[in-house]
Amino acid sequence: MQEDNNRPDDGTTRDQKPTRTGPGARISAAVVRHRRRHPRGVRTLAVGVAALVGLGLAGVATVTTLDRDGAPEPAAVALDARERAEAAARADRSARESATPASPTAGPTPTTASPTPTATATRKAAAKPKVTAKPKVTARQATTPKPKPSWVIPMAGAAITSCYGQRGGALHAGIDFAMPAGTPIHAAAAGTVVKAGDAGDGYGISVFLDHGNGYLTHYAHQSSVKVAVGDRVGVGEVIGYEGSTGDSTGPHLHFEVHQGQMWNQIDPAPFLRARGIDVAC
């Protein structure tokens, strides 16, 4: 068999170094055996550096590499940034809770509640002075009431059946107003009652009013009266009710105007027209 040319004559291979004898040879052999158990030429020693808790600094691991000759070769490797931030936050929170222990009876920290829109609107409404609306003036309030007339027609809406003048050869000294029996009769003007009742003179139940200005008015043929002699009555006041007493052929009011004294009758139509009352006579 052909000999291996790689083997030297001294019994070793070319890759092997000559083995020395003696004490030094044992140390070299131990080193050789040790190097065969690890990767060739490299031995790594990892040295950890603790995280700086409380300062919020992340931990840094330093890896020191020993080369063939045992010289250190440090290399800084940064940890994950998110993990460093979370670790720092937990450490900072733990430090605060340790420094200020919570009171067992203390409740939640009161917070100032922001005002609700309703509360804000209420405060604004309270601060703003309330304006009271002025009452509207109606037309009735604005207008001045008309003064009460001095003279009125004694029976408004009645039909005139006879005027002042000659009738059947005799003087008809007044105006006849016809309405159903019992219709109220009103004083033509304010005055004092000087006669009330039936005097047997053909006028039946009648009333005389003295107006104090030189004129008297006479209301004849009433069914009944509401006033008595000496009573003071106002314009338009009811003094009695229509009837057909005395010389009468039917219910009506015989109205007369006396000037200066009783029984001095004048035509009532022009007298009333002069005082704003128009009658169809």
Automatic annotation (TrEMBL):
UniProt feature, compositional bias: Low complexity: 97-124
Chain intervals with Basic and acidic residues compositional bias: 1-18, 82-96
MF (Gene Ontology): metalloendopeptidase activity
UniProt keyword Cell membrane, yes or no: no
Transmembrane residue ranges: 45-66
Keywords: Hydrolase, Membrane, Transmembrane, Transmembrane helix
Domain M23ase beta-sheet core: 171-261
Region (Disordered): 1-38, 82-150
Designated name of the protein: Murein DD-endopeptidase MepM and murein hydrolase activator NlpD, contain LysM domain
Organism: Micromonospora rifamycinica
